[in-house]
Structures are given as structure tokens and as C-alpha cells.
Amino acid sequence: PIPSLKELFKNDFLIGTAMDARQIRKEDAVADALIQQQFNAVTPENCMKAENIQPGWDTYDFDLADQLVAYAQKNNMKVNAHTLIWHSQLPAFLHKIQDADSVRMYFENHISTVAGRYDGKVYSWDVVNEALNDDGTLRKSVFLDKLGDNYIVEAFRLAQKAAPHTKLYYNDYNIEQPAKRAGAIAIIKKIQAAGVRIDGVGIQGHWKAGAVPLKDVEESIKTFGALGIEVLFTELDLTVLPNPWDHSTADVSATAQGNEKMNPYATGLPDTVQQTLAKSYEDLFKLFVKYKKQIGRITFWGVNDGQSWLNDWPISGRTNYPLLFDRSFKPKSAFYKVIATANGR
Ligand code: G3I
User: Fold this and answer.
1) Which CATH number do you get for residue 318?
2) pTM for this prediction
3) Structural domains counted in the chain
4) Relative to the CA of 173, which ligand 1 atom is closest?
5) From residue 309, how far is each of 13, 223, 236, 316, 319 by CA, in Å?
6) Which of 106, 123, 157, 321 could bridge 78 with an S-S bond, Cβ 3.0-4.6 Å?
7) Mutate to test the pocket of ligand 1, among 17, 20, 25, 45 (most ligand atoms within 8 A of CB)
8) Which residues are catalytic?
């Protein structure tokens, strides 16, 4: 068998993966074996999001979430539950609510019901997800709009009450960048100043192979760590594809499939790019190992390249290669570079 990430890093940090619905239902035996061999932490990719878990007002669907919790318990894995309060993937009924009182009622009921159900069963919650703009200001959302800018503190207060045995995290992307990082620091300090518990901050880690912002990541680990909370890397993947925003609209609007410019590796990843990806993962894990005292968990956003959301974002139908395992679950050179950072100590 291949080396095991969770074994090699067991004294450093948890090693996690996102699990999609098929994997939770154990529809893919190869994926299942690999998940059990490699990971000791799991995050539901979608099934605990608001639109899925409370699709109708006070109507809950806990089916997949319960299956995930049982799966993790059986296999000795920690569940990072994702996510309670997020501006996106909200149930349709919430978009129709206009008055602040009803939004508040939803907000309170959702947090206490969902976080309460899983207290003692999950390890941690992403209590609030992606509340910031890139400039560090609070993002427009139904919660900011109807509940005011104290809604994040309130979410943590409610989560703490409903889930006293569960770690509580703030999770966002790009918060390693200085301006957005300052916004995250302000959120964390505000929660702490209110006497409310926050246990960690999740840096999502959706970066680009060959362009990982290592200096900013290092600075962030130090700064967040100094606030007395854990640092987590929660959704790690490294795209190898061109960013449509760097290209002309003509390039982008052409269909992605068969479009050389937007989908250059439809038939396979050239060795040079494979090496670039591997080097980026190696650099990152060297940093993670260096700061293992501050870091609680590294989670990959998916098991293999074929299932990654990055094949379909921001344009769909592309062929991306952002993870450690290829489409047939074979470890890539990036996997072995990561393994080497554990062995090299
Ligand atoms: O399950 C339905 C299926 O029944 C339906 O036929 C199909 C048609 O579109 O949609 C399926 O649901 C999709 C779901 O993924 C499962 O594949 C949703 O449309 C799609 O919006 C959803 O995308 C997810 C996205 O978050 C939005 O929630 C991605 O899988 C997931 O990887 C992504 O994860 C987010 C994190 O939660 C937060 N940080 C960023 C990260 C990447 O966007």
C-alpha cells in the first residue's frame, strides 16, 4: 500500500478531505478505501449547508449528515461540520422573507437546531463562512442587512450555547491576503471581546499551482496564532487552469470543452505542470510542518481530481488537476512530495 498521510502527520495536525454525497453513501468502493487509509478528518462538501439541511421553514433533512457522522464515528474520524451561517446556498424560502424578525427567527432556530443536534457528535463547526469582502469589509448578505453587523458575534454566541462541546471556527478564502486578513482579525477580536468563544480560523486555501502566496500564508499563521486560536487549512486545492478573468471575453465565452485557451489539458497534464503542482504542495507542507503547533488540520477539498468543483468553476466542463490523487485514485507526484515533507524531518 501507499504511505498514509494521516499516519505520517499524526503528531502534527489532522488530515482531512471533503466528502461528496456519493462518497458518504459509499457508492464508490475505491474512494472509500482511500478515504479510510489517508484521512482522519472529514468535511461534508454540501450536505450540511443550509439549503440542504433545512430546505423548508422548520423542515429539516438530516439524512446524509447523519450518515456522514455515523461513517466518521465508525472509522475514527473527526467531522468538521460545514457550515451554519453563509450568504450562499440558502434555502429558497429565506429569499422571500422581507422582515427582520423572521430572519432573526430563522437564524436562531437554524443554529440551535442544527448545531444542537450534532453537539458531541461532530468535532467542530464552520460557524460563519465567507462573511468578508476582499477589502476586509463585511460582505452584503441577508444577515448583515436584516440583523446588523453584530450578526457574526451573535452566531458564535448561539453556537456556543447549542454546541458547548464543539469547536467553533470562522472560515473564509483569501484571508491570508493583508486587507482581508485584517477584516478576519477584527471579527475574531470582536468575538473575543464579547466574551464569546471562537476556537479557530479556517483559511480555505483555494490557490493556484505555481502561485501560492507563501509569504502571506506564513504571516497569517503567525498573526492568527497570536490571537490564541487554532489555524486550519480547510479547503485546500491548487488549480492548474487559466483564470477566465485574465482573458478576453471572446476566449471565455467560447465553449470550454475543446477550447485550447481555457481548457488546455483536456487530454492530460504535461509533466512540467505536474512538477509545478508538486512543488507548490511541497512548499506549502514544509510551511505547515514548520508551524505545526499553530495548525490544527489540513483538509483537501475533495479526494481526487475527477470530483473537484474546480472542473466546473468558474466555467464548467473543464479538466482540472488540483488534488493529490488522479482520476483513477492514483497518487500523483504532488502526493509523494507531501509525503517527503513528513519523512524529511
Ligand atoms: O446535488 C445537485 C443535483 O441534484 C443537481 O442535479 C445538480 C444540478 O446543478 O446540482 C447538484 O448540486 C450541486 C452541488 O454542488 C453538488 O454537486 C450544486 O448545484 C452546486 O452549487 C454545488 O456546488 C458546491 C458549491 O460549494 C456551492 O455550494 C460545490 O460542490 C462545493 O465544492 C463548493 O464548496 C465551497 C465551500 O462550501 C465554501 N468555500 C468555497 C467552496 C468552493 O466553491
Assistant:
1) 3.20.20.80
2) 0.97
3) 1
4) 39
5) 25, 30, 12, 9, 10
6) 123
7) 45
8) 235
